[in-house]
């Protein structure tokens, strides 16, 4: 009456459920599911370097450097390079953020559901093992008294054949 080990194998049901939820939610909104494996990073800025710092160059006497220094216009400080996002871009960004938050909440919900199911399976397995342990204790007490229950004899007979 040995209990088989518990193996929670639902063939990646958690991952499948997550991908289905994400696909369904993006399909309803008419959005494409596209993830890139790279992260966006800020580019290094050289805005702190002034155009006058080129005077320290060994080629500062050349006429091309002098003319370029004269034609250079100082950019107003405090502004970032690049274009400003339009209001449409901002709204699209907010919508993408909301969609991402919805997907994150759905994944979190599925993850907790999966973990709760796993806990329930483990608890039932523990209860079965406790029952089996109690049965073995009863058999040992009976054997110490000299009485051999029929279940014990059948168990020994069955497992005696399997071991040889």
TrEMBL record:
Residues 89-139 form the BZIP domain. The keyword Transcription applies. It is found in: Nucleus. One of its GO terms (molecular function) is DNA-binding transcription factor activity. It comes from the Eukaryota. GO terms for cellular component: nucleus. Residues 76-85 have a biased composition (Basic residues). The keyword Acyltransferase does not apply. Gene3D superfamilies: 1.20.5.170. Residues 28-102 are annotated as: Disordered. It holds the Pfam family bZIP_2. Residues 46-68 have a biased composition (Low complexity). Keywords: Activator, DNA-binding, Nucleus, Transcription, Transcription regulation. Residues 86-102 have a biased composition (Basic and acidic residues). Its main location: nucleus. Belongs to the bZIP family. ATF subfamily. This is cAMP-responsive element-binding protein-like 2. It comes from Desmophyllum pertusum.
């Amino acid at each position: 009456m040995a209990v088989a080990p518990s193996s929670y194998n639902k063939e990646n049901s958690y991952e499948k459920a997550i991908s289905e939820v994400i696909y369904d939610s993006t399909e309803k909104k008419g959005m494409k599911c596209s993830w890139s494996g790279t992260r966006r990073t800020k580019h290094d800025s050289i805005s702190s370097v002034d155009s006058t710092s080129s005077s320290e160059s060994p080629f500062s006497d050349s006429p091309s450097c002098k003319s370029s220094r004269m034609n250079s216009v100082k950019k107003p400080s405090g502004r970032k390079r690049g274009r400003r996002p339009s209001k449409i871009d901002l709204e699209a960004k907010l919508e993408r953020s909301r969609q991402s938050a919805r997907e994150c909440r759905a994944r979190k919900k599925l993850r907790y559901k999966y973990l709760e199911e796993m806990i329930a399976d483990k608890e039932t397995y523990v209860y079965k093992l406790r029952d089996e342990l109690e049965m073995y204790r009863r058999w040992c007490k009976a054997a110490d008294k000299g009485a051999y229950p029929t279940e014990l004899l059948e168990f020994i007979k069955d497992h005696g054949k399997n071991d040889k």
